[in-house]
Write a structure and sequence with these properties.
Blueprint (H helix, E strand, L loop, with lengths): L2 E3 L6 H12 L18 H13 L3 H8 L4 E6 L2 E8 L8 E3 L33 E3 L30
Parallel strand pairs: 4-5
Antiparallel strand pairs: 1-2, 2-3, 3-5
Helix pairs in contact: 1-2
């Protein structure tokens, strides 16, 4: 299994298209119910879409995501995306954290005991983890190949409790 470096980069045309679609959202008429009583609050949703259309800095997010060492590897025909960070200290231990759908590896990047920027401490016996966040084949590598990947070959072991 050979791992290939992976970097997040969304083409400008894709971001321009997204912003255009967000700015041209066709909003429903407000419901006669207050707030979140019967679904998403329309004012909140309009504010959120406005933020994504005009204020969200996707390039800053790409820089942050690309500050983590990311790779892809083909495992039995499935493209697996993962972050691999070597531990620090005299005896780092391996740690594999997985996620399922609809979760994302991004949710795991800020875990304090796993942060590559957190030095070994007395609480960890002077060790720091070697950690990896694989993207499980069950989630079908949609964004890694420009569309959904093939379904797994056959039922088999999963990458986590999901």
């Amino acid at each position: 299994m050979d791992a290939e470096p992976f970097f997040v980069h969304v083409p400008d045309a894709v971001l321009d298209d997204l912003r255009s679609r967000l700015r041209h959202t066709r909003w429903p008429e407000p419901l006669p119910y207050p707030g979140w009583t019967a679904g998403a609050d329309l004012d909140y949703l309009k504010e959120l879409v406005g933020y994504w259309a005009s204020s969200f800095d996707w390039r800053a997010q790409e820089r942050w995501l690309n500050s983590f060492p990311q790779f892809t590897a083909d495992v039995d025909g499935q493209v697996i995306h993962f972050v691999h960070q070597r531990g620090q200290g005299p005896s780092p231990f391996p740690l594999v954290l997985t996620h399922g759908w609809p979760s994302s590896f991004v949710e795991l990047l800020k875990l304090p005991p796993c942060s590559p920027t957190r030095p070994p401490t007395a609480a960890t016996n002077g060790t720091a983890s070697t950690w990896s966040f694989p993207r499980c084949p069950a989630t079908r590598s949609h964004h890694l190949r420009g569309g959904p990947g093939p379904a797994p070959h056959a039922p088999g072991p999963t990458c986590g409790p999901d």
